[in-house]
Fold:
Amino acid sequence: VAAAESYPDELKYHPEHDWARIEGEEALLGITWYAQDALGELVHYEPPVDGASIAKDASYGEVESVKAVSELISPLSGEVAAVNQQVVDAPERVNEDPYGEGWLIRIRLSDPAEADSLLDAEAYEKLLAEQ
Amino acid sequence: MQTLRRTPLFEEHTRLGARMIPFAGWEMPVQYEGVIAEHRAVRSDCGVFDVSHMGEIEVEGPRARDLLQALLSNDLDRIGPGQAQYTLLTNERGAILDDLITYELDPFRYFLIVNASNRESDFEWIKERELRGSDARDVSDQYGLLAVQGPRSLDRLGLDETPAFTFSEGEIDGIACMINRTGYTGELGVELLVDAGDAAELWRRVLDRGATPCGLGARDTLRLEVCYPLHGNDIGPDTDAISAGLGWTCALDKDFTGAEELRRIKEEGPARRLVAFVMEESGVPRQGMRIVEGGEVTSGSHSPMLDRGIGMGYVDSALAEPETALTIDLRGRERRARVVRKPIYKREER
Structure:
């Protein structure tokens, strides 16, 4: 069952349709409702390995639907602390709950100040409206 | 920018909230609810596809049959009026200009239903080779075509079961159409050829009868699971019928364009073959990906029924046996796959 469209206020957004939930020195990352809707039902999640370094604005993995593949762009830099194995096993979790059970990785932030460059929900929705 | 053509059902698709994409010069629905749900509807019950973008060529006259016997790979002597036949339009090298279905209305009149992307080139090819006493006309714009597919499709349409590859004039809820027992999904089903002006009404009646609207996304995963080749991916002007495993569509005991070359390939054995494979590891194979042992993926996707990656591709004939291990290069990641006998998915006996 696909989730209803939403962009929670407590998240930070990257223009490539990725979100970050910043929790102190760590952040959970995932893709937005818009991204999962554009892709359709996900059938594959190619995660990074635990401990890998990922860089802001660079690809850290892929998600695929039946028809399309999409790079995952990291909104923030850091080191992979955990991969959501539930999504590896059942990628459709992302469609069902993109901001909850459908999170993709947890990272330890290497530069928490990078968060200042991200969009808030209002600015991200404005960006979507322009597309 | 090229203007995209629209089928007589365009308004129906937008009303249903379909996601539209450009395909072979047409603006077509890729999905409504979702590819996987639509795929499952066809495997378990009944789905309807707008395939009005496909081309229809009518060939008639006292020498229509001679013309088609000379240009098409299959033998019209194997069918009679009211029967249809899967066949190939081949060039002098035995390569595949198109795959299509011939419908014999009577020995002087035939209908060819061809791929949308080849409609113009097929028609030109045939027109240039016409005989005195045969007349080919592109009548595509006069018709809409609806594919109604799935184990419950005939029940839902109130039709009696007839043999595959037969057709008849009939009606659904009073709308006259040609009812063809053909399809591209591996399921029981029909393709309804209808006057363009009646197509939208027929579409609505078929939906009222409980068919799930399905887009090109599900059409592709359905045909790939049953290993029906897609012209432009798995077969084309650089591939021949023998290598593609379509030798059964070639009557090599008759003369048609390229028959001599095909006889030679069959005699010598093809250097490579089109095989089907399933992924043994995660990941979705896609068209154009390298097969590490030598070869290339020509079609790849996720199988909703097997819940894993599947595909077809050409490999060296030595690697074509079922159970052979292959490695697919998924954008730099090498993942294991295994050659399987076609079809990849087989419907359980009813």
Observations:
- The mean pLDDT of chain A is 96.
- Chain A touches chain B through 13 residues (CB under 8 Å).
